[in-house]
Write a structure and sequence with these properties.
Helix content is 35%, strand content 20%. Helix 9 (212-221) crosses helix 10, helix 12 (303-318) packs parallel to helix 14 and helix 13 crosses helix 14.
Amino acid sequence: MLSDIEIAQKAQMKHIRDIAASVGITEDELEYYGKYKAKVSNDLIKRVKDNKDGKLVLVTAINPTPAGEGKTTTTIGLGDALTRLGKKCVLALREPSLGPVMGVKGGAAGGGYSQVVPMEDINLHFTGDMHAITAANNLLSAMIDNHIHQGNELDIDVANIVWKRVVDMNDRALREVVVGMGGKINGVPRQDGFMITVASEIMAILCLASDIEDLKKRFGEIIIGYSRSGKPIKASDLNAQGAMAALMKDAVKPNLVQTLEHTPCFIHGGPFANIAHGCNSVTATKLAMKLADYTITEAGFGADLGAEKFMDIKCRMANIKPDAVVIVATVRALKYNGGVKKADLKIPNTDALKRGMANLAKHIENMRGFGAPVVVAVNRFDTDSDEELNAIMDMCRENGAECALSEVFAKGGEGGEELAKKVVSAIASGESRLNFTYDTDEPIKAKIEAVAKKIYGASSVSYTSKARKQIERLEELGLDKKPICMAKTQYSLSDDPSLLGRPKDFMLTVSSVRVSNGAGFIVAETGSIMVMPGLPKAPAANNIDIDADGKITGLF
């Protein structure tokens, strides 16, 4: 059996101008990065802005498990299946982060015969967007420390700087650092730290900004810290926003690639859904909707994270809504949620499956509560028994959702045709609307508790003394009327990764609260969530290599 990278390397890709032409993009509207990838120009975005919007499909999943669910693979396969059915379809996906590629995933461009290509480029540097985000973020850090070194006219409190440096790699040693060591010539010593690039507010702003002017304005609104009198200090106070935006002049443009079956795909932006809002850029999504009859996009991790933030943050800010939601699940992952050990997941166990289906049922309930019709995609494996598959289908019907088996990993678009037909049918029902979890004018605690209780199923929420003080301060400063971005473990509906299935009667603990003022939301960190991951004992990087001819191996 061929590996993902071997399948991708055997692909017969079309020139990116031909992919662009299939959805009406002219060659003059492309900025080439070789033959198989390109950025699209601002002229295209302006030209199609008055086009009628096509239908939008959001792909999400149950809480992730070590068994995997195949959300991106299903998203790509659904797009190819719709194309096979004669529908004009464009995908809108997130860019992979080098941290997970080198850490756990080994690649994030789909899998099997349901991939976006060129797979190696997409996973390794791509068009440089991540590096531009890193540079813009760290320019602001450098300007903060330079301002302090040069006399600190703004009276920045060096003990109350909230802006962190970033690097797009899992590096636990950088979580807490001290900068400015080595004497006066090297600046003022202070405690600092690094986040992974995809957790940066710069990434969130890129994905929510409407254009370069909006991006620059949002950069200026970033709160980097506070003065010794407690006044918020913004990036605009350092006059940093112009140079930061200049570094992002190319990164703001969506990237165009193709699937193995030549369906166009915009890949742009990649915030993590457990520590950021987890959706690709508004620009890419809206552009796809202007060019296609069906736009297929995804949100990171389980529906309790990425999909909730897609609805409550992205849709609210961009004034869009999904016409249908696809929830990806597997028999194996549901059995894991039912208490089966990873080593035993291939063994049929309908009783454990039924226990684990409580997790899927909660996600269906949540997505239907937002107002969109739901289709469950069961990513099929050869070890799944008919009894197990029938049990999932029965549960979906009982919970008001359609269900389709998906075999896109092994068969590409052909294996997703049943799913595609059910998605088209669900959209044709015309039932979609959009209900938010909370009103942004509510108090911060009320918004947090709405997500915790309605989406996660928590019975109550507790706040550390640090979090309570931070909330009070944000309300005093008038920075509280914004959506909430919950930072939470992806492995459970709760903030405890060991609580699988559908936990009940649990308390969610909010450890800290901060404002991403430029992005326009408030981040509530729960449990022991970290904004800089670490590498595992045996990182994926151990298996990645390149030969004398430049051929890369080891990407999954």
